[in-house]
């Protein structure tokens, strides 16, 4: 029996991460080999040629699961009927730009996009924000779609999570398959806290397998500043790994994680002392199409301090966008 296609809107489709994402989605890597998909590529006028070129290449791949590709520079058209919205396009920080300028520029993008999602997308729409500052952009979009459950708006910290898994496995000389229980807490920024307190690697507690000073010092810095390291070494920001993480996030959200834990920035209902309404990274599992925050993990004094510091940054960003009238 053929299944109804899922409509996926990708913003920033003419950019790098959009390009690295759409071919994998169309090949079935995100929703499975039995799920047809329709792609909606949303850009701004300056980015349309890039998106058009990518659409030509999608045709040339002849993906059996791809039922159609539509392009638009109008959010009201781009989000029509979307079941999944991947908000990748954003306004990057450029020389001389203050944090308030960056938040204001992105507010002008994510406010209207959130409104269009609320008005046009399918009732079951799930939103993942990749464009930075991802957590606060997700909050802005969520606040403009008051008729949708807030839980449908999430931000990407899976890239940080995957980095944390890869770097721990490399330190121990173990397979990534043997790593579980890592948490990224807080903001997708240098204040994030990659936490090994409850992690296992190669069938032993991670904190027994590695030097504790490393786990609570150099490791945290390396994960939290990995984006900057990639920019320095590669000469450009993460692309394939960011696309891969966005695909992992949506796949796990829709198809479930089983017992495995991962990290995602989801709306807080006050868990672990994170103020209600913030979109902050937590330990999560997904089942039945919903992320569920893993509760009851013990938080020691060191972890408490690191979580509080990153959450304080999210509070400051939320207050700044409130002052700018963006939410
Ligand atoms: P890019 O500059 O190559 O592409 C961005 C695209 O977005 C451009 O084509 C641009 O025209 C488009 N765009 C801008 N405003 C838009 C709008 N209002 N609607 C639709 N499209 C719009 O950038 P990239 O390398 O693809 O990165 C995209 C974003 O992802 C950046 O903000 C980057 O900082 C962020 N990022 C996030 C993570 C994460 O883990 N959360 C990781 C890597 C990169
Ligand atoms: C990353 O984590 O790789 C990006 O968020 C870095 C960036 O500033 O684009």
TrEMBL record:
Pfam families with a match to the protein in the record? Ldh_1_C, Ldh_1_N
In what residue span(s) does the Lactate/malate dehydrogenase N-terminal domain sit?
7-148
Output the superkingdom of the source species. Answer: Bacteria
Gene Ontology molecular-function annotations: L-malate dehydrogenase (NAD+) activity
Q: Where does substrate bind?
A: 93, 99, 132, 163
Reaction catalysis annotation: (S)-malate + NAD(+) = oxaloacetate + NADH + H(+)
Which SUPFAM superfamilies has this protein been placed in? LDH C-terminal domain-like (SSF56327), NAD(P)-binding Rossmann-fold domains (SSF51735)
- Domain called Lactate/malate dehydrogenase C-terminal: residue spans: 157-320
Enzyme Commission code(s) on record: 1.1.1.37
According to its UniProt entry, the protein's GO biological process terms are:
malate metabolic process; tricarboxylic acid cycle
Taking the record's annotation, the residue ranges forming a coiled coil are none
Q: Where does NAD(+) bind?
A: 12-18, 106, 113, 130-132
Keywords associated with the record: NAD, Oxidoreductase, Tricarboxylic acid cycle
Catalytic site residues? 188
HAMAP family, per the entry? Malate_dehydrog_2
State the family named in the UniProt similarity comment for this chain. Belongs to the LDH/MDH superfamily. MDH type 2 family.
What is the documented function of this protein?
Answer: Catalyzes the reversible oxidation of malate to oxaloacetate.
Q: Report what the protein is called.
A: Malate dehydrogenase
